[in-house]
Specification:
The chain contains 4 helices and 3 strands. The chain is mainly α. Helix 1 runs parallel beside helix 3, helix 2 runs antiparallel to helix 3 and helix 3 packs antiparallel against helix 4. The model has no long low-confidence stretch (mean pLDDT about 90). It has one domain. Strands 1-2-3 form a 3-stranded antiparallel beta sheet. It is about 65% helix and about 10% strand. Strand 2 and strand 3 form a beta hairpin.
Length: about 150
């Protein structure tokens, strides 16, 4: 039970932080876009109508419903996989909270609010706090699994 509470707290925390940042970005972009311009990273409002690197943009409005369905299925599956859930409930909460943070954008703005544009050395996709949170949580899951597989040999 403790793990489920922490899972939902992690999801809620990431969701709220993500949405607070996006509200600030949307307000700041009304004044100037790019919001901040540097030699390395720009803060610029972009609406991503697809998923990572704008993939799936051809799905249009149905993409948000597909993502909602996948998020709900993911929650059900991870809640039923007790061993996996108990090992990774914080990371899974972060991923779910970030997923819902990006999903709500699709319903409110018809695209994900992205704003971090890395362009030092190469041009990278524009991303946001939720995307970064998902990547960190997945990196932790992978690193922990690799560590545990070597430790248990």
């Amino acid at each position: 039970m403790k793990e489920k509470i922490i899972f939902f707290i992690a999801a809620f925390f990431v969701f709220i932080i993500d949405q607070i940042i996006k509200i600030w970005i949307l307000d700041a972009a009304k004044i100037s876009n790019p919001i901040i311009k540097t030699d390395i990273i720009d803060i610029v409002l972009v609406y991503n109508k697809g998923v990572a690197f704008s993939l799936g943009i051809f799905l249009g409005n149905s993409l948000k419903w597909i993502i909602l369905t996948l998020l709900v299925i993911t929650i059900v599956v991870i809640m039923k996989s007790n061993i996996f859930f108990k090992q990774y409930y914080v990371s899974l909460g972060v991923i779910i909270g970030a997923g819902f943070g990006n999903l709500i954008d699709r319903f409110l703005y018809n695209g994900v609010v992205d704003y971090i544009y890395w362009h030092y050395g190469f041009n990278f996709a524009v991303f946001n706090f939720a995307d970064t949170s998902i990547n960190i949580a997945i990196a932790y899951l992978l690193a922990h699994n690799i560590y545990m597989s070597y430790k248990n040999k």
